[in-house]
Every structure is written in structure tokens, then in C-alpha cells.
Amino acid sequence: MTDVFSLRDFTFPEGFLWGSSTAAHQIEGNNIHSSNWYAEQQWLKDDPNAETSGLACNSYNMVEEDVALLKQLGHQAFRFGVEWARIQPQEDVFDKEATDHYIRELTLLKENGIKTFVTLVHNSVPRWFEEKGDWQKQENYHYFEAYLKYVLPKIAPYVDFWNIFNEFNLGVYESALVRKFNCTIFHGRAYHLIRQYSKAPIGTAHAFVQQFGKRQGDKFDMAAQEWYDVLNHEFFFHAMRTGELVVPGIGGIYDRDIKDTSDFWSVNLYTRDILDTRVKGILGERYPFKETRMIPMKFYLEEFFPEAMYHCLNRLKDKPVYITENGVCADNDDFRLVWLAEYLSAINESIKAGVDVRGYLYWSLMDNWEWTSWKPKFGLVSVDREHGFKRIPKPSAYFYREIIEQNGFKADILKKYLKEMPRVQDYHL
What we know:
- The structure is a single chain.
- By secondary structure, this protein is of the alpha/beta class.
- It has one domain: Glycosidases (TIM Barrel, Alpha-Beta Barrel).
- It is built from 13 helices and 18 strands.
- Strand 8 and strand 9 form a beta hairpin.
- Helix 7 packs parallel to helix 8, helix 10 packs parallel to helix 11 and helix 11 packs parallel to helix 12.
């Protein structure tokens, strides 16, 4: 971490869009027909450190409160998901009540002047679709298409930005490579289908992780750096730009229906991967201290590395960019203040370097279920799950509100909320 007290004031371009992000399964609760719900009951039950999602943040039943919270905190945009498993709980059943729920949520957001970023698939899928092989089989696209043909005409009038998928691009094992090959094809097909109902910009949220060889200049670590970048990132950017989809070891095709099917780069960015060819599995320790953490568990998204934001964004100068996820998990909210200041500074420097960044959505609006546990706390707002799921904004939420109001960072604002640089907690793991 750098000394944020040394940062100079900076502003963002006029019209810059500020807000936050969530994912349906992580906040809504009781999503009993999803693949993730089933997985929780199976592989988390024997892990003493794991926690299931349960009612999550109860956001499915607290839509009015959450929209009011967004308004209170000055957010201009909100990224959330419509949950396929709720809308189509069985292959031959579409749930009108669930569909109406999302229409009501979208309506409330629009009435409150909040731009909507809608994710159509955010990791979880219906259990019945998973049983059919989900994204591992190209022939399964027709199931996804049927879902889209049902939901798109109903929600399209309320959507300002589309994310077709969330983060299918990561992974170097065979099933992950198959998934990203197929999902890139499905993205292209879905793009053209959405365009029949909507003129709003369309993208897919890309998990952008700087691939960083541990020994810069070492031929083995640098080869791993380039290889992992191709497998995790460049295959997607190349496909969107040229129509040529190449996933080494899986296949390569040219499909003109893929080319130019991303109207903007949707970037989810947190940190870097440390690639160490001297250890089994190549992925090294991300965080420099093995025993000191910011939360009471080992977690892979703790390292502050805003340089990754600058490095990665500077590869995306050919389209508008929206940061659709960026945030830090920490028990001490002071870290969130530092994170916001450092990463927004890096984004600002990227804009100066010619990147057309048009918006920033912090992950996440509230402390949500992070797929295996409640311990990683990313939220600007805490949730008292023992007392009616009360939403309690943290100091960082008000700090962020002032950034939004100023459309930039002011050192005087930071000093109101942060008296000294925070120190990492030793949890003796």
C-alpha cells in the first residue's frame, strides 16, 4: 500500500458513472433451484469453516429498502443479476412471479434515476441445466436461448447496460477451457438475440487479473506470464476484435457472428496472479505475508496492487470501459478507504493515458455471501443478519458518496475519514 495521504486531488470526465455491484445468488437468498444452492448442500456440509448462503442478505424481499439505500448513498448505477434459476426453475416451467419481481426491481431503479447494469448469468445456473452438462456442451445453447427469448422482451425496456455472462474467462484446466470456448460462442449468439429487443450497450463481465511472473526477466516465469495471459484474457479480446476464437488445446474457429459483439469492455479487476514456475501448480502466493490477513481466513483477493488496474486498462483503448467490479475484503473499513483512493487514482491515470473509462461500480454494495463464507467482507454497507437484515452503511460508504458528489478524489475528504494508515491484522492462521 502506498501512503494515500500523499495523493493529489483528481477529477473524472464529465458524465462519469458511479455506483456499485452485486450478484443475485450472493444477496437474494433462498435460491433453491440454482446449481450453487445444490452445491452448497453437498460439498460445503463437511467443511467446518464453510457457511451456506441461506437467506443471504434477504435482498429478494427487501428491494425497496435496497433501492432507497442506493439513492441515499448517491449511487448513479447498479449492477445486479436476474437469476435464471428463479425465472426458469424447471426446464418446462417459467415463473411469472419471479419475472414480475425483477421487472419491479428494474422499475424502482429507473424511477429513482439509477442506471441498470443487468447480468443475465452470474455464475449460478438452474440445477436442471447443470445436470444436462451446462456450458460444457455446445448443443446446450438452445436451453439458454429459450430462457433469453422468454425474459428479454419483458425486461429489455428497463435495461441500460447488459452483461451476458460474468467471468467465464478464468481457468486453465480442461473443463474451464471448454467452458470459455463455448461461452464465447454463446456470447456472440446472445448478443444478436438481445439486439432484437434492445439498443442498450452489451458486454460480458471479464475477470481481468494481471498475470505477473514472480521473477521478472526469468525465461520460465515470463513464459508462464504470457501463456496464462493468452489462456485467461487475450483469447476473449482477440475473439471480440477479430471473430477468431482460439483457445489453445481446445480449438480455433472463425465466426463472424462473434466479431464486434462487445460494445464496451466490462472489467472486473482486483489484483494480480503471481506465477511461480518453481512451485507445483505455478500459481504462487498472491499476498506477501502468509500469516497476516485482513480477514480471519485465507483469501485470494487481499493484495493491494493498483498497478494492475493501470496495466490492464491500458490494453483496452479501442472501446469504452466500465469497471463493473472492484473492491477489497477487509474487517477494518479503513482499508476500504485506502483501496478506493489508490485504485481510483490508477483509473484516473489510465484515463490520462487515453483509456475511455466511463464508469466505476464498487464491489460490493453490501457484505454478501462470498460463495463459501460470510467472512470476506467487501461491502460499503454491513448487514446485521441477526436483527432483521438491517443495512448499516460504513464510513467508506459516505466517503464514496462524497467522491461521487465531487466526481473525483479530494485529499480533504480522505482526511475526514482516515486519520492514519491502517495495519494488517495478525489472525495466526
